[in-house]
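<purpose> Linking amino acid order to shape
<body> The protein record starts here
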Amino acid sequence: MEYTAVVITISDKGARGERVDTSGPSLVRMLEAAGYQVVHTAMLPDERELIQRELIRCADEQEIALVLTTGGTGFSPRDVTPEATLAVIERATPGIPEAMRAESMRITPRGCLSREAAGIRGRTLIVNLPGSEKASRENLNAVLGSIGHGLDMLRSQGSADCAAPPSV
């Protein structure tokens, strides 16, 4: 089944036009190659209220299946994407960021510093990714197949075939 997706880049410099976003377009290409229909992209500054409003709009008004954010997950005082996400989700999905961090730790010991969050709002899955193109691609690649199965469960009327072997 083809699902709708949105990619939101969170970057003060990007929102001011001082930095070219490469992470967002890279994630769009990955999603499209995996069969997702990317219906919207956005660039927002690191402002918690703006991020929350956009996540709520995507989930509640547009009924998007998958919302990916890229950026705002580090230690900077302006990095508030996880907090904005946690404020709007109804159910946390901690396994997704755990899997991404585990994969990141295989690449760099600094992977443990990533603060991504993920969760469900209504029938929308929201996943935070790092801001760097390389790290965002690595993190999404680590969970993209599982996310598809999660969306099958989330968007189904009953339950998806959880006993089926995972596709690789």
Notes: Residues 4-155 form a domain with the Molybdenum Cofactor Biosythetic Enzyme; Chain A fold (CATH 3.40.980.10). The radius of gyration is 15 Å. The beta strands are 4-10, 37-44, 66-70, 91-92, 118-121, 124-129.
